[in-house]
Write a structure and sequence with these properties.
The protein contains six helices and no strands. The protein is mainly alpha-helical and 165 residues long. The chain has one domain.
Length: 165
């Protein structure tokens, strides 16, 4: 392989890593926002909003899988599940923001730490999937796995670059 091809491939991995980390950070910020929101909104309000938002779609198509799924979830949403979801989202978001900030600063220790934490997120997501199968948990786990691979590749690139200096 020629040097130019190697550099191009490394830069593509670096760009993909930066994009993946950007979305992890955005996801973390949204989780913090959602977690905080859950502490201030009553479960009944959430249920009413979801039903109002899906009512038109269900009026047109009673078999709409997404709308039906959302309505069923909203009806089962209790104060205890709301508290769990709030704490989970808030802590998950804070951890992601901390890791993303550390990764963007190029702190070497952050890379293996992020790989371990994101792997633990996948383990937990698969546990949740085992209890309550959902396509969201699979999709989230696949995206986390991609970010883990990109983080590992970026870590290797950074270590090599620092050793070359």
């Amino acid at each position: 392989m020629r040097v130019r091809e190697i550099l191009r491939r490394q830069s593509l991995v670096h760009i993909a890593f930066r994009i993946g980390i950007f979305f992890k950070g955005l996801d973390g910020a949204l989780e913090i926002f959602g977690g905080l929101l859950l502490f201030f909104i009553k479960p009944e309000t959430i249920s009413r909003v979801v039903i109002a938002l899906t009512q038109r779609e269900l009026g047109r198509d009673q078999d709409d899988a997404v709308a039906s799924y959302l309505v069923q979830g909203a009806r089962r949403f209790s104060a205890s599940s709301q508290m769990f979801a709030g704490v989970y989202l808030l802590s998950h978001g804070v951890i992601k923001i901390f890791l993303v900030a550390s990764l963007l600063r190029g702190r070497l220790l952050a890379y293996p730490m992020a790989i371990v934490v994101f792997t633990l997120f996948i383990v937990y997501q698969m546990y949740r999937y085992y209890l309550h199968p959902s396509i969201e948990m699979i999709a989230l786990s696949i995206l986390d796995a991609i970010v883990i691979v990109l983080t590992g590749l970026e870590y290797r690139r950074l270590k090599r670059a620092r050793h070359a200096v």
